[in-house]
Amino acid sequence: MALGTSAYVPSSQAWFKIRKVDRRPLFLSSYSTSAGGAYDVKRSNRGRPFKVLFCGTDDFALECLEKLHANPDICDHIQVLTPADAPNRWERSKKVVTIPPVKSFALVNGLAQHTIPEGGLDEFEIPKEFIKEAESSILLTVSFGHLIPPKMLDHFLWSRRLNVHPSLLPALKGAAPIQWAIARGLQATGVSIQTLGTSFDSGEVLSREEVAIPPSSSYKSLREIIKPIAAERLLFTLSNLQECADTAWKNKDRPNEIEQSHAPMIKPRMTSIRWSTWSASKIEARHRAMGYLFSLRTEIITQTGERAAVLLRDVDLYHHDLDSPGKPLSEQAFQLIKNAEPGELVHDKESNRVLCRCAPEADGNEHIFLQLKSVQTAGKKEVPADQWINGYTTTKGSIRTARFLDAN
């Protein structure tokens, strides 16, 4: 394939455009990031360019791989290790195989590509190029999802086995740091370059970059912000690896610097709403953090007296004290929702809003409510909330009301 041409490969989330990269040497003296930092690239603390065994899968990892590949003065040899291709959907009665974006990039750009053996990473043989020159060999994982066994780690110096993690370690250690940063209402998160240990996120932190979280960020939007910052931070760390290694610190050595927290893998039960204890802000934050994968879920009693599962496909916050788009809530509806119990719904036809009362806000604000935009009852189609609620309400004057059930 000629330089500048492109190829498209499928992903479970989207189609990724894989392009051949112009590998001109890096001559810039600094890097600018959306976080406002500047990276000084110092070459005095390292010798020849690194050789990198790059372990990754998705588009987040691809951003780092592209950055490395475009800077041969820092990294002049890359080999890629990815999971096996997986058939994960059907199209015209045929299974469609998903090719990891990292693998596609390697194939398009002529990089050696390896696949995790069927027996796991314990059966993977480190390529000889990385065994001969330990000082310049790097083992790097980005969005890999597999624990590197000691057999592989032992082939690399401790400061040469690295991981890119999208949080300010030791905060948000785990599989879903971006999601939990949003779900917990944090104002900032970051990127850390850490060494690889014998368990996930147990290494020493070599380098970190703080990233502000814009209001109303979703998982996907914040991820897009962090991706290029992660790639730049990786390049900075490799350019200053000896200095970073000399000042590295273990998570356990600074327990008071940043509160240690965990970011476990996202599971369906994490979006099951507990109306009696979850505030509207907490519920809406979970929607932004996890709704791309699992919709908010609850239950309601149908007109036949049966429990029905309900998915809240789209929600936002309604601040009664602030100017909100659309017509303001009627006074009658406001009094009903203000005095309602957590889980109770009010449909105000005058403003065409469907609001739900939730548990009190942490700051005591009683005028913040969850606004339903799109809803789906199990076995039925997704519809706008003002249409959906007609089948589940009783009438109080010109206002319709209903009630959700608390999660078990």
Automatic annotation (TrEMBL):
Its EC number is 2.1.2.9. One of its GO terms (cellular component) is mitochondrion. SUPFAM superfamilies: Formyltransferase. Keywords: Protein biosynthesis, Transferase. It comes from the Eukaryota. Residues 55-225 form the Formyl transferase N-terminal domain. The keyword ATP-binding does not apply. Residues 266-392 form the Formyl transferase C-terminal domain. GO terms for molecular function: methionyl-tRNA formyltransferase activity. Belongs to the Fmt family. This is methionyl-tRNA formyltransferase. It comes from Meira miltonrushii.
